[in-house]
Design goal:
By secondary structure, this protein is an alpha+beta fold. It contains four helices and twelve strands; from the N terminus they run ββββαβαβββααββββ. It has one domain.
């Protein structure tokens, strides 16, 4: 099935999305033992032909679709981190469409190739899959999606792989009935030289996404950005 991106007209996303290859971090400082999967950096604009290949059809389950969304934000001082955290706590996500219980807030400095850290080691983990629901391969597509909103002040990016984790596990020969996918499967897949490309989707303050983060490899990024930003997350 792979990546499914909901949009109306190509002009709605034109100039906002790029695509490129991935690599393993190797000896890059701050990453997990060199095996973390990160963008290669060879970004090119997503073409209309490529975008059409990602468009879901009527049979595509909503649980595997990425939606790009927007939410009005209060006016903040540029350095007001606590004000942004407080606003996220009080937010009614997508005007009642999403559960109000916030999962987390993460403030990220500018210039991060990928943003997610392992809290036990302080190392960044690169592209990964979430495992809140821990569903095995046959029902993995039923996992809850996650809503993320950029509260600024800087731009952020969503990085997302174009192959889903069940396809990755199938290529690796994992038990399709019982195996619970893990980020290690993604890392093994890339280490063995199998194809994976990555989209980079720009999120300005007030913009966000709903994404199947237990189904698609993903991470955040502030690479090439000049200002820190805060991301807030809700689990669907």
């Amino acid at each position: 099935m792979g990546l499914q991106l909901l949009f109306d007209q190509f002009s709605d996303i034109q100039g906002r999305i790029e695509i490129g290859n991935v690599r393993q971090a190797g000896d890059a400082a701050g990453y997990d033992d060199g095996v973390a999967v990160v963008p290669q950096g060879d970004w090119t604009p997503l073409s209309s032909v490529e975008a059409d290949r990602l468009r879901p059809d009527d049979a595509t389950p909503a649980s595997v679709v990425i939606e790009l969304v927007a939410q009005p934000l209060p006016v903040f001082a540029s350095d007001d981190l606590q004000g942004r955290v407080n606003a996220a706590s009080a937010l009614d996500p997508l005007q009642g469409r999403w559960p109000r219980r916030r999962l987390a807030c993460t403030d990220s400095p500018a210039g991060l190739l990928t943003s997610t850290e392992d809290s036990t080691t302080g190392h960044r983990i690169g592209l990964h899959i979430d495992n809140f629901d821990r569903l095995p391969c046959p029902v993995r597509q039923n996992s809850r999606r996650r809503f993320c909103l950029n509260l600024g002040p800087g731009t952020r990016y969503l990085l997302v792989g174009d192959r889903d984790i069940t396809e990755i596990c199938r290529v690796l020969g994992r038990d399709q009935e019982r195996h619970c996918p893990h980020t290690d499967d993604l890392r093994r897949y890339v280490a063995e030289g199998h194809p994976l490309r990555c989209l980079r989707i720009r999120l300005e303050p007030g913009q966000g996404y709903i994404a199947p983060t237990e189904f698609l490899p993903h991470d955040g990024s502030t690479s090439g950005v000049q200002t820190w930003s805060l991301a807030a997350f809700w689990l669907g």
